[in-house]
Design brief:
Blueprint lengths: L38 H4 L15 H8 L3 E8 L9 E9 L9 E6 L10 H9 L6 E6 L27 H22 L8 H14 L5 E6 L1 H12 L4 E7 L16 H16 L2 H4 L5 H17 L2 E3 L2 E3 L4 H8 L5 H18 L8 H11 L4 H15 L5 H12 L6 H4 L25 E5 L7 H10 L4 E5 L14 H13 L7 E2 L3
Parallel strand pairs: 3-4, 3-5, 5-6, 6-9, 9-10, 10-11
Antiparallel strand pairs: 1-2, 2-4, 7-8
GO molecular function: hydrolase activity
Pfam families: Abhydrolase_1, Abhydrolase_4
Protein name: Alpha/beta fold hydrolase
Length: 511
């Protein structure tokens, strides 16, 4: 389930490709972290080149315009067999412009799992300001993501995160769909699925480190990227310098139902959005009270349960309507709230049988969720999560959890407790990483984060006693640094990245 940042178009599951032939049979991977057999990967030449792949590549063009360069590194598919099949990892670099005070490479991860990160040097460089001059900013598309060697299960939808719906029939449909998604992925990618995991992504990061000629890396990871960073510190002790984790996942709570912890936060965020929207009735015409706005949302859900809504060229059923709201509740800034209110007006027209044409934001979201356009990113996301923590619990355990939580959280529970494709996945090739260290890091979290809950950030802070936690009380925001416009939080991060000194104590920043 994608730990998404930003507004409505940052869809969960998009939360979130032909691989080279000739693979050996699937075997369990129990790779060690010693470089034995990895010398050729660590010592490989980095062939930097322009980033744009052609005239229709706005991301690459923006990187080129900023003076960035891109490269493709080679890593083993299976770290227990470094002489075997290989993959390509796409990276970008915005070089330090103050070499006299250069700190080294700062690797960046945008979250997901399955989120592309190649363009992150642009946004992070802007947030860092003058501090960026001290770093080589390195964007990395993880294995099977973005421009790296891809993975695509050939799905007709792009999200494995969706609501169970109103009743048992809807839940049964969810079970059947998730079983089918897992089956398709196994049939098309069985040869690589055992090697799609956070542990192997962390190993790839260390190949990037070595190929860049760095003894240690600094790291900035958002959301799922915070989990990836923690795993890296455990697999490669002593190889990190300055670490910033924004939207912090407690690794002990990293499971196939990791969104369950965010149920209450999403329910609260929905009510807060309804109040914001009610105060702008003259703009959105959804009601002058929060209750009236919420009644419209319930009417939309009821109509979608009876018959999929016609929204432009899309058909949106009861399983995906709640995901539209979930995707829009990752921020309490005006822009994403306005996007969600606009989407609600469109969905309300569809629920009333009127012509409903989605705007650009909603159209992008629905394409990523409900069509094969989102298959590649959704496939990578599911493969990473399920490759990390798939556990066969029994389908009825999800239904019991949904029913137990539905009375108190009628909007969020059917989505956050719903079954996932991981229930039908093959077991992980390796056990999840136990993060049992104490790395100094700067942690950032809002108390109302609707993806990575504040309680999880507190757990990591308590476990990493040498770290410091920057808190934004009362904010319903996922992704703070450079995203929320909070000068206090941004200053804390930039000060730490500038001199490597953590604050003397935890910091509370007014939201």
């Amino acid at each position: 389930m994608q730990m998404t940042r930003g507004g409505l178009a940052a869809v969960a599951g998009a939360v979130m490709l032909a691989v080279a032939a000739g693979a050996s049979p699937v075997t369990a991977s129990h790779a060690t972290q010693k470089p034995s057999g990895l010398e050729r990967f660590h010592a490989q030449d980095v062939d930097w080149h322009d980033c744009a792949l052609g005239p229709d590549d706005p991301t690459g063009q923006k990187l080129d315009d900023a003076g960035a360069q891109c490269a493709d590194l080679t890593v083993p598919l299976d770290y227990t067999d470094p002489g075997g099949r290989t993959l390509t990892i796409a990276i970008s670099r915005l070089r330090a412009t103050d070499p006299a005070h250069r700190v080294g490479p700062l690797l960046l991860n945008n979250g997901g799992p399955g989120g592309p990160s190649l363009d992150m040097p642009l946004t992070v460089g802007t947030a860092m300001g003058k501090v960026a001059k001290k770093y080589d900013l390195i964007g990395v598309d993880p294995r099977f993501v973005g421009r790296s060697t891809p993975l695509d299960c050939g799905w007709d939808i792009g999200s494995t995160v969706f609501s169970a719906g109103k009743g048992r029939a809807g839940f049964k449909h969810s079970v059947a769909r998730q079983r089918d998604l897992a089956k398709r992925c196994r049939e098309t990618n069985a040869d690589v699925l055992p090697y799609v995991s956070t542990r192997n992504t962390a190993r790839d990061m260390d190949v990037v480190r070595a190929a860049l000629g760095a003894h240690r890396i600094s790291y900035l990871g958002y959301s799922y990227g915070s989990y990836l960073g923690q795993v890296y510190t455990e697999l490669f002790p002593g190889r990190t310098d300055r670490m910033v984790l924004d939207g912090v996942i407690d690794p002990t709570r990293y499971t196939q139902t990791l969104l369950a912890d965010s149920t209450e936060a999403n329910e609260r965020a929905l009510h807060a959005w309804a109040s914001w929207t009610a105060a702008r009735h003259d703009t959105y015409a959804l009601g002058r009270t929060a209750d009236t706005v919420l009644a419209t949302v319930r009417r939309i859900q009821q109509a979608a349960a009876e018959k999929p809504l016609r929204v432009g060229d899309f058909r949106v059923d009861e399983h995906f309507v709640p995901l539209v709201y979930f995707s829009g509740l990752g921020s309490d800034l005006d822009k994403p709230r306005a996007d969600l209110a606009t989407a609600t007006r469109t969905l309300a027209h569809a629920a009333d049988g009127q012509h409903a044409e989605p705007g650009a934001e909603l159209s992008e979201l629905l394409a990523a969720m409900t069509t094969k356009a989102g298959s590649q990113q959704g496939s990578a996301q599911a493969a990473i999560l399920c490759g990390d923590v798939a556990t066969q619990r029994g389908t009825q355990s999800y239904w019991r959890d949904i029913q137990a939580a539905r009375k108190k959280h009628p909007f969020a529970a059917p989505l956050s407790y719903n079954i996932t494709a991981c229930e039908f996945w093959d077991g992980p090739a390796e056990a999840p990483t136990v993060v049992d260290n104490n790395v100094p890091a700067l942690l950032i979290n809002a108390t109302g984060d609707t993806r990575t809950t504040y309680a999880g950030a507190r757990q990591v802070r308590d476990r990493w006693s040498h770290s410091r936690l920057v808190t934004l009380p009362g904010a319903n925001q996922h992704g703070i640094y450079g995203e929320y416009g909070n000068a206090c939080a941004d200053t804390q991060v930039n000060s730490y990245l500038a001199d490597g000194r953590l604050p003397g104590h935890d910091v509370s920043c007014r939201a």
